[in-house]
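FW: tagging you since you asked about this chain on Friday. Here's the raw sequence from the shared folder, copied in full. Didn't touch anything.
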Amino acid sequence: MFLDAEADGAVRQRVAGLEAATGVEAVAAVVARADSYPEIPWKAFALGASLSAAAAVAMVLLAPGWEAAEAVVDTAVAVLAAGAAAALATVWFAPLARLFLPRSRRQAEALQYAQAMFLEAELHRTRRRDGILLLVALFEREVVVLADRGVREKLGPAGLEPVAAAMTAQLARGQLKDALLAGLARLEETLAAGGFRAQPGEANEIADSVIQQRGPS
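HL: got it, structure written out here
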C-alpha cells in the first residue's frame, strides 16, 4: 500500500541480508496512522470558530451601523462555517492535523502500536529472543525500533537509538523506502559491533515480508 513492488522487494532483500549476517529475526513495518485521533477535528473546529468569532466582533466594533439581528445571524453563520472548514481541513491535510497533536502523544501512540504489532508478529517467540521490529508511523512521522531482551541485554538500553535516528532523518525528507533501508543498514552495523553472528544451519523463524497496515480507522 505504501511501498511499490520494487521498494518492497528491496526492503525484504535487505532484511534477509541482515538476518543472514547477524542471525537475528527482523521485521520492517509501515502503518498509515497509529490512532484515529477523533479529537483533532473538534480541536480544529473550536479554533476556527474562535478566530471567526473574534473577527466578527472586531467587524461589529468597527461598523456600529449594522442592525443587531443581522449581525447576530451573520456572526453565527460565519463562526459555524469557519469551524466546520477547519475541522474538514484536518481530515484531508495531515500536516495541518499534526498541529493539533502534541509530539508526546504521537510518540506514545506510535510506541503502543509497535508494541501490539511486536506481539502480533510473534517476535517475542524467537528461540534466542532476538526479534527486532522497525516501525514507521506515517501520519505521526515517528519511528519505533523495538527489540526483544536477547538484543537489549547485549546492546544496552540506548543501543538502538542510532537506528531510529538514521530512519528519522530519511523520513523527515519524505523518503519511506530510504528510511527503512537506512535503518536496516545501521541495525546490521550495530548488531555486528555487538557481536551478533549468524550460526550455520539456522532456520528463518519469521517471514521477511514487509508489514503494511492502515491502522485504526
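FW: The mean pLDDT is 89.
HL: agreed, and Residues 39-98 form one domain.
FW: great, closing this out.
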